[in-house]
Every structure is written in structure tokens, then in C-alpha cells.
Amino acid sequence: MVSMETPVCDFGWPAPDFDLPGVDGRRYRLADVTGPNGVLVMFICNHCPYVKAVIRRIVRDVDDLRALGVGAIAIMANDPTDYPEDSFANMQRVAAELAFPMPYVIDESQAVAQAYGAVCTPDFFGFNGKLELQYRGRLDESRKETAPEDARRDLFEAMKQVAETGRGPAGQIPSMGCSIKWRGE
């Protein structure tokens, strides 16, 4: 397992579109998940200890952001060949067990992860209502262990600011996680 950090936010970078199959049998495009005040596009998976440490907080924050007019989608781009926990069937199981409030989709070709420049799981891309990147930071101070309950909610607070002003915070702390498992590597 290789730990990676996300690059700094490229403010204003336009969100690439996609068309991906979800665990619910539907296909999702960017327009399907974007709220009036923005969208959170996240790259996660099932096996990564960094994701496991925050997945319940991701669900909480997506629920809270929806009330602010911010949509969300979770994309699994890993090659599940060597990581069977990331299989489509296991994606369906995890989404059901945790009652995901956002679509959970698979990027089998990994083209969407490449278009976004995703480097790790979790990797968060927060866009405003004009689909301009405003946040590329961490969820909170959790790493492989869950941070204390009273930890600052970096992602939620940043996306709340984006929903209210259209701009993300100038200071952002990178997300850290397991590297994307690219095909052929």
C-alpha cells in the first residue's frame, strides 16, 4: 500500500463530465448529481484503511451538504483484480450497509479517474455551482485511524463556504490515502 497526498487545489478548473454505472443499476452523468450550489466528486474504494476510517463521516457530510444544495457522487476507480474487496458486488454491499446518500459508481476503464487526476482514496473534488473546482482537500484530520469526534470538519466547512459564496477556502490541507490501483501496475 502506497500512501499518497493530493495536489493543491487548482481553483476554477472545470469538472470533467462522465457517464458511469452505479450500484443501483442506473447510469450517472455529472449533471445528474450536481446540486444548485455545487457538487462533491470523490474517489473512494472499499479496501483502503483511509476510506474505512472516514466512510461514516463521508455519509454524514454528504447528507449535511445535500441540505445546502450540494450534490455528491462516489467513484470507485481501482482495478479490483488484486483487490477483490473493491469488486462491484462488494460496492453494492457497502453502499447498502451504510445507506449511501450518494450514487456509488464504478470507473472500470479508469478514464474518469485519469481525467480528474485522482491520485488516492479518498480524493475529494469540490466544485461550485458553475462546476469550477474550489476544494481539493481532506475530509478531516483522520488518517488510517478515525480522528476524534470533535475534529474540525474540513471538507464540510469548505463546501458550506462554496455553497454560500461560490469560492473555497484559500488554505486547504491535502487529503491522504492509498494510491489508485491502476490497471497493469
UniProtKB/TrEMBL annotation:
It comes from the Bacteria. Residues 9-161 form the Thioredoxin domain. GO terms for molecular function: antioxidant activity; oxidoreductase activity. InterPro entries: AhpC/TSA (IPR000866), PRX-like1 (IPR047262), Thioredoxin-like_sf (IPR036249), Thioredoxin_domain (IPR013766). Pfam families: AhpC-TSA. PANTHER family: OS07G0260300 PROTEIN, THIOREDOXIN-DEPENDENT PEROXIREDOXIN. This is Thioredoxin family protein. It comes from Parasulfuritortus cantonensis. The lineage of its organism: Bacteria, Pseudomonadati, Pseudomonadota, Betaproteobacteria, Nitrosomonadales.
